[in-house]
Amino acid sequence: MLGIVLLVGITVLFVTGLVSYAAYNPDLARVNDQTPDKGILGFYLFAWPTNPYWLYRVTQGLHVTLGITLIPVLLAKLWSVVPRLFALPPARSLAHALERISLLLLVGGGLFEFTTGVLNVQLDYVFPGSFYPLHFYGAWVFFAAFVAHAALKLPTAVRSLRRRREERGEPVPRAPEPGELVSPRPLPPTVSRRGALWFVGGASLLLLVTTAGQSIGGALRRTALLAPHGGADPGGGPNGFQINKTAAYAGIDAAETGEEAWRLVVTGRTGTVRLSRAQLLRLPLHSSALPIACVEGWSTEDQWWRGVRLRDLAALVGYDGDPPDLFVESLQRRGAFRRAALRANQVADPRSLLALYVNGEALSPDHGHPARIIVPAAPGVLNTKWVARLTFGDL
């Protein structure tokens, strides 16, 4: 039963994880090769859509919440098969040796994926190396072993479930299989199988209730006790919603973001223009109601952004028709995603803005003053803050 739950749950995790990677690294144009490493397994990548605008909020919220909810199931499954991991001899045949190797990759890969995922969600990631390629390649290794193991064990799982339906009460203990480790002096059982399943299910339900609110939002946000961005908004006023990276952490110098010093550099087909914030404010301004959704699974409510459309900025440098891809560079000095790439379809969406205001007030330093990117359905880190340069086209 634990295996069947993991079969369904891990398949959903793998698919939503691949979807998240596609959202981060849309591929195709050379400009997008500057996003996190694709590697040879990026064959499936596609242009990430902008509709519905809450798409990434749902897919990544599901990925993180389900992953945390499955932790008790994974640990219980490993606990239930610990004796089999140490069965002797370690390999009785070539086929058995291959199965044992796949089991090693399955257990090691599963622990690695869940551990790195939890560290990224809870501790802003402390694992050595970049989280994105490590988690991505680890997922492929783990899922390949998972598919092989599921194919080998599915007939056994089906037989077990069928037998369970035919039984009444607790099942009769089965005889040990050849080569299986069996305790010579077993102690009396302390919990029934049904009790163990209730315990695992209760633990998963507890994790679900104390995590899911960070991506659902509203009143349920206060129930996200185990989520770093759970609870109420961290501050008051128009800028009082969640952030991951403060201006101080990013190394932003207030002097370089002031009205006199800051200039936005926009480069494209016809050359380069430099715009002050005052000049940007004289361009046509538009508004969009969009959330920010992060890879850690948390998201904000819809915020009311106001600024200049990205496609209008593309028109300033020679792209009057369909705008091209966009490469964005930030003033930040520390932290990942100082640069980000957006696909042409994201630039063309009329809701995609270089935002100057949020909820009727100028952006605060922590929310990206003097200007930031906001794009529907894009991961939070692609909504670059403290924007310094926009380069349109495959340059």
TrEMBL record:
InterPro entries: Mopterin_OxRdtase_euk (IPR008335), OxRdtase_Mopterin-bd_dom (IPR000572), OxRdtase_Mopterin-bd_sf (IPR036374). It comes from the Bacteria. GO terms for molecular function: oxidoreductase activity. Keywords: Membrane, Transmembrane, Transmembrane helix. Residues 259-392 form the Oxidoreductase molybdopterin-binding domain. SUPFAM superfamilies: Oxidoreductase molybdopterin-binding domain. The chain crosses the membrane at residues 62-82, 103-123, 135-155, 195-213. Residues 163-186 are annotated as: Disordered. Pfam families: Oxidored_molyb. PANTHER family: BLL0505 PROTEIN (PTHR43032:SF2), PROTEIN-METHIONINE-SULFOXIDE REDUCTASE (PTHR43032). This is Oxidoreductase molybdopterin-binding domain-containing protein. The lineage of its organism: Bacteria, Bacillati, Actinomycetota, Actinomycetes, Kitasatosporales.
